[in-house]
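User: Hi! I'm working on a homework problem where we have to compare a predicted structure to a textbook description. Could you give me the structure for the chain below?
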Amino acid sequence: MIERSSATFARWGINLTPAIAGATDPTHLKLHDNDRCIAFFRSKGETILFLRDLTLLCARFGSCPFAVIACHRPVRAGPFAVCFFVMAFAAPHHAYTYEEFLALEAAANVKHEFLDGEMYAMAGGSLDHGALALVVGSLLRAQFTGRPCRVFNSDVRVLIQATGLVTYPDLSIVCGPVERDPRSRVTLVNPVGLVEVLSDSTQAYDQGEKFEHYRQMASLRAYVLVDAHTPAIEARQRPGENDSWTITQCGPGQSIRLPSLDAILAVDEVYRDGLLGA
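Assistant: Happy to help. Predicted structure tokens:
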């Protein structure tokens, strides 16, 4: 798509602030679903709207969403390679209902978290992230033989009814009857255990804000954090709904007991295959 008149931008109600970006290194960015964003390149005094070969980023400052858009590769203008980018202030986000989220999620090709009317695309994990989640799930499942406990992977959605967060933990464990959200038969509401493999982009969230949501689940007894960079496991546990949470951290040569799951995770066994660093 090419637009040769920047007046079109004004008709869209979008304010543009151009700036020079790096001329050689592409910026790998991602666009939030709901933002209308544009980018333009200036060559010989003419503004061209160009919507191909772009990777995009959206971020938020307060309540004002904006997108920073960078070219995937430099634009050649004569002998120079110049890349301009635009900060495009978008229209306010649409606040989705939970029912709208469920309908959109059923048709989406990526998974989203949902909270307070907003949908947030979830990035894929690293090789180590995927391998560690599989190993921990396998080790737990082997210890559940003959018991009414199930391990679900990150394809399974969990709703924290007390806060409204909908997310996809790396592993969810249910012991006893599986309780589902009556509005969505594929959404769990009663995990007794949750496991997250920490990555650079989610570590602070998983350790902080996300746990604040998780701990509001009456059923939850164990929250396990597995480091994707070094052999280390942390468990946050409580014996009952109204009891205080305790934190246990283990490294190489140590094991972590999960009494509520009647299971043990040996750090050396979890990391037996080593880490690829990717």
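For your comparison, note the following. The chain has two domains: 2-89, 124-270. The helical segments are 7-11, 98-107, 127-143, 203-207, 209-214, 267-270. Good luck with the assignment!
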